[in-house]
Amino acid sequence: MTLSRFLSASLATSLLALTAPALAATVKSPDGRIEVTLDTDNEGKPFYAVSRDGKPVIAPSSLGFDFTNEDPLRRDMVVTGESRASADTRWEQPWGERRFVTDRHNELAVGFKGKPTAPGRDQRGFTVRMRVFDGGIGFRYEFAGRADHPVTSIADELTEFVIAPEGTAWWIPAGDWNRYEYPYSQTAIEEVSSAHTPITMRLADGTHISIHEAALVDYSGMWLKRMQGRRFRSTLSPSSRGAKVVRKGAFETPWRAIRIADDAAGLVENDLELNLNEPNKLGNVSWFEPTKYIGIWWGMISNRWTWAQGERHGATTERTKQYIDFAAKNGFRGVLVEGWDYGWDGNWFGNGRDFSFTRAYPDFDLEGLSAYAKKKGVRLIGHHETGGNIANYEAQLPDAMALYGKLGIDVVKTGYVADAGNIISCSADIADPCAGQTMEWHDGQRQVQHHLRVVQEAAKHRIAVNPHEPVKDTGLRRTYPNWVSREGARGMEYNAWGPFNNGPDHEPTLVYTRMLAGPMDFTPGILSLKGDNDVPLASTLAKQLGLYLAIYSPIQMAADFIESLAAHPRELAFIKAVPADWSESHLVAGEVGDYAIFARKDRNSDDWYVGGVNDATARDVTIRFDHLDAGRSYDATIWKDGPDATYLTEARHQIAYDAKTVRKGDTMHVRLAPGGGLAIRLKPRK
């Protein structure tokens, strides 16, 4: 298809009415299937457009900015030049879904300039750097420093995404009180309102796309606001100071990333955002060990214990020793303890002013328990709940991380429990002391700065960080590999607070939406299938095992009470065995929102694991063992839904066990129950 025919087809579905001049710059993916155009229209508006196999995916979509202290950059601009590059490399992850990642792309950088705003002023503009991979595209804006205007104050970014074909979207609302913690909606693309990213779409011809961002550093998080039809515009998370982003001198925005694939597996087995991030800045991080852990957590979530002091206080020395002993006996490296420090008494939600990150409650011996755990071959996992008060946390951050480092606590879970907009901050420059407090959005520039500061401070003491109520993951784990996991979605705790609070399709949807951003600390392993007041989970017992394969994290929790874990020895055997670090990962069966079955190979042995999760529809699935090593036989140990299992009744506890021998190329037919799952361990015969 010629450029003029492509643009004509695109304009038929676009509300922008952009006109393509003759000097359009184009760049293709290495395999030639994806083509991107960058140029200006007849009004001088910069735009980009994306086609795949000659068919429009993203119709011509505007680029630009509004500022708080100068005129917009969105029209009357001209192309000033272009440059090209390409890459074909492979790099190794210190931990991850797969050991090696291939970075193969073609790059086009186009400069855009506008008219000077006044005599004697520099001509304003930006460069758009576009990288095109076989699995999608990434682009960012680059601003050169200006001597006459050293500070750039962005009111909003005007990047648009005009989806050319009709299709279905899976999304959660942006700008609402509960951050990212919503069930996903499945609607027509035209019915989306404002959405967080990643947002996943299946287009009419079967093409799958996901829109997200990469390398979110010193900038506000991007939301997507549907303007009209299938035209979306970026809107940046707000700030108390008016300007959503303030930057000094030259700077780059995060990458705007669009995964493009033939099917659901192509979306999942895609390293686009990782490749758009800078390489590891920390050097050797072998001190972090991917691990599984238990913890004093579900007792508070399910209202048996309390975080605050009193008769039901969860974080006691005696109880923690019991958990350490269980961990040592069953091969869990970590024990998470929440509620150990001063600040939990009273109304801490959304203010956090009383939290101390170095002072333990009288009934919790932090130093003694750290030593006790170490003797048993176990490590405490630290916990820093801020109540959203980052000013209080930052004031104590160096001392808090130094204490954990001294005690050998090498993983910390942080928390920011507060309604949206209720982050308590100080000056926009985090190097300044806090002279006064303001409220900031949870994914605004101030909070983005804060999270990176925590990760960098933790790295000084060889501590890994797992934030809850975080800023979304944008692949920064490549640059800072101690940023090992995070929450950033509706997690397991919601199951404790109401019957089927997370519906059976929640986890199969997470695989194709939230999980495209990066690892999630979902906290599986509730083998009792019960929450507060015995409310049931929308899960079978087999699904709780399948979650370890479907929801990836290099730190995986067995979240139930230790007596419940002990009461399920055959299920506990799987949890003890399943790795938290992989050399390969493949989605071998699945569809967005319906089900997801993975095959993953242990990084430290030749064992393979196969399994995953299902939605509310019973289905028969055929699994092909194409990823096994040729010429070897494998003993398969199988945990699967019982013949009558369903999440809707007490039959959710019904599980069946099986064993057989399989080889590469064999198939297995498995029934997935409503709300069900599957787990298989494949151990090669010697």
Task: List the defining traits of the structure above.
single chain, 686 residues, alpha+beta, Beta-galactosidase, Chain A, domain 5, ten-stranded antiparallel β-sheet, eight-stranded antiparallel β-sheet, 37 strands, disordered N terminus
Please tell me about this protein's structure.
The chain is built from twelve helices and 37 strands. By secondary structure, it is α+β, with helices and mostly antiparallel strands. It has a domain of 273 residues: Beta-galactosidase, Chain A, domain 5, CATH 2.70.98.10. Strands 6, 7, 8, 9, 12, 13, 15, 16, 20 and 21 form a ten-stranded antiparallel sheet that branches. It has an eight-stranded antiparallel sheet with strand order 1-2-3-4-11-18-17-14. The protein has a six-stranded parallel sheet with strand order 28-25-24-23-22-29. A hairpin with a 5-residue loop joins strand 1 and strand 2. The chain is globular. The N and C termini lie far apart (55 Å). The N terminus is likely disordered.
What is the count of helical runs? 12
Distance between the termini: 55 Å
CATH architecture of the domain at 3-275: Distorted Sandwich
What composes the largest sheet? 10 strands, antiparallel
Structural class: alpha+beta
At the first level of CATH, what is the class of the domain at 3-275?
Mainly Beta
Mean pLDDT: 94
| C-alpha Rg (nearest Å) | 25 Å
- Helical content, roughly? 10-25%
The total strand number stands at: 37
CATH topology of the domain at 3-275: Beta-galactosidase, Chain A, domain 5
How much of the sequence is in beta strands? 25-35%
Which stretches are low in confidence, meaning pLDDT under 50 for 5 or more residues running? 1-22
- Overall form: globular
